[in-house]
Amino acid sequence: MKFIKYSFPILFLIMTMLVTSVMASTTVITVTTAAVYHPGQTVVVEGTAPPNVEVGISVFNPNDVLVYSTVVNSTSSGTYQAVLFTFPSAASSEYPYGTYTVKVGTSTGFTNSTTFEFEPLQSLITVEVFNPSNVAVQGANVYVNSTLVGTTNSSGELSFYEPSGTYDIMVVPPSPYVPESKVVTVVAPTPVTEKFVVQQEQLTMAITKVLAYNSSDYMIVDLTNVNIQTTPIYVVGNSTLWIYVNTFFEGKPVTNATVSLLVDGMTYSGVYNTSVGAYVIKVPIPNVPLEESYQIEAMYSGYTSNETGTLIMQYNQAYIIGSIEAKVSELQKEVAYMTSQITLLRSELVGNISQLNSNITLLRDELSGNVSELKSEISSLESNLSLVESELHGNVTALNSKITSLESTISTLNATISTLKGEIGSLTMKINNVNTKVSGLSTLTYAGLGLAIVGLIIAIVALVLVFRKVK
Q: Which residues form a coiled coil (predicted)?
């Protein structure tokens, strides 16, 4: 009974010690810090840990590089706090912007971690959009450096954060207002409010639908939900692009405006389609990779409205493959046709060759008889040729003899002429003597002698001519 009386307090004490030991062994270390730090701010961490233990703290940058470590002691109540380091005034290679990790632990092996963001100081930027009557414009798209950041609410406002810097802020209001741009300088953390007063244009234009073939399965897709002012239109080559445009003058639809699209040096006119209630611009797309800016222009009653964007043409490999396959099919048909023609020609050639062989045999027989006749005729011609040659030889001999005789006669005539020339010279001397003697004769006598001399000369000339003719 005494054992039972004292056993319960002992068991309770043992159980209390066990529970205390278990609770001590399951004490968890925690760590907390601010969610975001900016340049120039100091990082502070705190948490809970077993009482009176050393707590190791390490900080790693977004590249998982250790940038800071320290050891602090927890209090008797099991809490700790540590002021770690101060971020520089701007990001650096050691302290880049991004997510940092804080890891804590004790010598007993308890560990934990948390994260925080290191971000540049930012300013609250508020954009206000009003028309010239100071009425808020709802639904205006706000772009910062060509990136859409939001749309104005019913109060014509949009707020967002940006770090220090210079920004090109563009407001694109709905029709019939025209876009407006400003260059805004931000010095964080000072808030900035920019008011845009958008003007109302007389002639407005809206692209209501864009249809194009896609590059995956060559199907027509609707690109209407794409913001073509900031997003390029992607089309596949060797296809067609359809752009639907509505125009408004003083807020009312216009169906007789001049609408056209200019791209890659070509102009394509829009035609108003009553069934769709819009101008439809049909653009043939060549099969070449190309990126071009385009401009859609609407003209009406002396007013002009423009819309610009980027058109990216993608190479249509499927079309090329289809064209090649079609060509291959055509070539196969041509090859089959040529094969049939070759077979037909082969059969015709076999028959023609047989006919040619028979004709050759017939010609060979005919030529054999003709050759014999030709040989006989050639033999006859050869004998006639010998006879002609002998006759010609006799004639040539006779001619040579006659030529020799003529040459002898000519030689004789030449001698005679020489003799005559001598006699003429002698006669001339005699005439001169006679002239001397008859110088004293009367005129009548002188004339008779002259006539006699002339007759003599004529006779001599006649004789010379006779000799020359004979020669």
A: 364-391
Instruction: Note the Cα 431 to chain centre separation in Å.
Output: 117
Same fold, 122-197 and 203-315: yes
59 and 43 Cβ atoms separated by less than 8 Å: yes
Q: Determine the topology of domain 122-197 in CATH.
A: Immunoglobulin-like (2.60.40)
Between CA 122 and CA 156 the distance in angstroms is 22
User: Residue 1: which pLDDT band, with cuts at 50, 70 and 90?
Assistant: very low
93-150: per-residue pLDDT in tens?
Answer: 999 999 999 999 998 777 999 999 999 999 999 999 999 889 999 999 999 999 999 9
Task: Find where tokens 């010095």 sit.
Answer: 187
Q: What is the pLDDT of residue 471?
A: 55
* pLDDT > 70? residue 195: yes
Structure tokens at 245: 């445009």
Q: How far is CA 134 from each of CA 37, 142, 156, 251, rounded to the nearest angstrom?
A: 39, 18, 10, 19
Are 295 and 261 within 8 A, CB to CB? yes
Cβ-Cβ contacts under 8 Å for 323 (sequence gap 6 or more) = none
C-beta separation of 185 from 178 below 8 A = no
Please give the angle made by the CA atoms of 80, 60 and 122, to the nearest 5 degrees: 90
CB 105 within 8 A of CB 74: no
For residue 12, the SS3 value is helix
The vertex-382 CA angle with 381 and 384, nearest 5°, equals 65
Q: Tell me the CATH number for domain 203-315.
A: 2.60.40.10
CATH topology of domain 28-118: Immunoglobulin-like (2.60.40)
The domain ranges of the chain are: 28-118, 122-197, 203-315
DSSP annotation of 215: S
